[in-house]
Design goal:
mainly alpha; 3-stranded antiparallel sheet; 15 helices; 8 strands
Length: 318
């Protein structure tokens, strides 16, 4: 079913807490405050609970979500804000640097939520249960029990050492994060009102504890961010097999593709592809000739880093 290695999977780590609205902003600000004082972000210090206003397990959960969404990263064994976080939220030196304005300093934009969703879901080593739901699971309707059983089978097939209870908790966190069922009165109310991903409309609750995950037109997803995701996906593929073209299937239906992760309809996806040439100033061109659909780079060597930065800035200005 998959060619991923065992080390490329991630179960648990969230301490059963879903990602809440202001957590990424708060955890990045926490790190930047420490850095501005010449310190290493003190996640293991009891003061972290005071500064973040949460308990010990929540501190661990906030750090985990920050790492898995790529807003935090390890450097020399320590956790720091990533370059991506600095672009979105600002860095400890932003206030001193003239002309540098954070794209979304308080994490309030839909683009930030879409970006976090992409980073969590496009690779199996971030949050495997969520990755599986968006990239492997093909049914439109889903419920907790069915998803748990399929994840258990998936882990057995790939020789992943994980307990059924761990998988159950991961599945619970997914549905609390993306769509809280109105039929359950036992769910955490704070998760319901503070869910970071609930605004994206990717999972809808249905009757009898079922959920629906279907392709749709994503009006809150900036096309420039879609371009960014395509480039991010293409960049990983190029490390395996370099190519100046990317075919339609790799963009729309392939595992880890933007079409699958964002659950876009073919019409919405095709409309966005038509905008690539204008958005990238001619560096990328969408071609649909004689039934052959390809995204083509006009450069012999595509500058992924530079183009992704440009698209990210545009995404927050759309």
């Amino acid at each position: 079913m998959t060619t991923n290695k065992r080390k490329d999977f991630q179960f648990s780590g969230h301490e059963t807490f879903s990602l809440r609205q202001n957590w990424i902003y708060k955890v990045v600000a926490f790190c930047n405050e420490a850095i501005s004082q010449g310190k290493v972000p003190p996640f293991n210090d009891p003061q972290a609970m005071v500064d973040l206003g949460v308990g010990k397990n929540m501190v661990s959960s906030m750090k985990w979500w920050g790492l898995q969404t790529n807003f935090l990263e390890y450097r020399e064994g320590r956790v720091y804000p990533s370059e991506l976080a600095n672009m979105i939220f600002g860095s400890s030196s932003s206030s001193k640097d003239v002309g540098i304005t954070p794209l979304d300093p308080y994490g309030e934009s839909y683009a930030t939520a879409w970006l976090a969703h992409w980073n969590l879901s496009c690779q199996a080593n971030k949050f495997t249960a969520l990755w599986y739901l968006f990239n492997v699971y093909n049914d439109q309707e889903v419920n907790r029990e069915v998803l748990q059983k399929r994840l258990i089978a998936f882990s057995d097939e790939n020789n992943i050492s994980v307990t059924s209870n761990t998988i159950k908790r991961d599945v619970e966190v997914i549905f609390r994060s993306y769509c809280l069922s109105s039929n359950s009165k036992k769910e955490n109310y704070e998760d319901k009102v503070d869910s970071f991903f609930g605004c994206l409309g990717l999972i809808a609750s249905r009757e009898n504890a079922n959920f629906e995950i279907s392709r749709g037109r994503r009006s809150t997803l900036p096309t420039s961010l879609f371009v960014w995701a395509v480039l991010d996906h293409w960049e990983r593929l190029n490390k395996i097999s370099p190519s100046k073209t990317l075919d339609w299937f790799q963009i729309s239906f392939a595992q880890d593709s933007p079409g699958r992760v964002f659950k876009l309809t073919e019409q919405d996806l095709n409309n966005r592809l038509e905008e690539f040439e204008e958005l990238t100033s001619g560096e990328l061109v969408w071609s649909d000739q004689l039934g052959i659909k390809n995204l083509i780079s006009k450069r012999s060597v595509l500058d992924f880093e530079g183009l992704k930065k440009s698209m990210l800035v545009k995404a927050f200005r759309e």
